[in-house]
Amino acid sequence: MSAYTWWFIASFVLLIVELMTGTFYVLMISLALAAGGLVALAGGGFALQMVIASLVGTGATLLLRRSRFGKIEKSRDASTDPMQSLDIGQSVQVKDWENGQTRVMHRGSAWDAVMAAGEEPATGSLTIVEVRGTRLTLSAQKNTQ
């Protein structure tokens, strides 16, 4: 088999790996291998193929890193992240308060609850804005997260 065939097979294999992993970085390396294959197809020597593949791979990876797809997200606090705790944003019924705390029924069990900082204790339907262990933080305002 010719050199460009090996480059394209390797590129295709990495493309399949990319589809299974979901990272765009493997796709950038796959593009680099395809570029090496194009140089081989055009008749360039092995050294030129390697240089072009290296440059394309490095450039594509750096461009990806600068794009919105390559940004590393800061981890959010799990106690206030509705994607990690399905309790956040749910409503609970509060009947009374004692010394700034109350007990509420939520998901079939009793939970300790406090009001969010800066809010006065209120009764009625309140929204869960934070979960810390077995303690809920409640707000009278609707959760906008």
Give your account of this protein's structure.
The chain has 145 residues and is an alpha+beta fold. Helices cover 40% and strands 21% of the residues. It is built from 3 helices and 5 strands. The protein has a 5-stranded mixed beta sheet, with no helix packed on it. A hairpin with a 2-residue loop joins strand 2 and strand 3. Helix 1 packs antiparallel against helix 2 (24-41) and helix 2 packs antiparallel against helix 3. The longest helix has 21 residues, at 46-66. The radius of gyration is 27 Å and the shape is rod-shaped. The termini are far apart. The mean pLDDT is 87.
Strand order, largest beta sheet = 1-4-5-3-2
Tell me the β content: 15-25%
Shape: rod-shaped
Helix/strand-derived category reads: alpha+beta
Helical coverage, percent range? 40-55%
Low-confidence stretches: none
Number of strands: 5
Count of helical regions: 3
| N- and C-termini, Cα separation | 57 Å
Please provide the ordered H/E string of secondary-structure elements. Answer: HHHEEEEE
Biggest β-sheet description: 5 strands, mixed
Report the radius of gyration as a whole number of Å.
Answer: 27 Å
pLDDT averaged over residues: 87
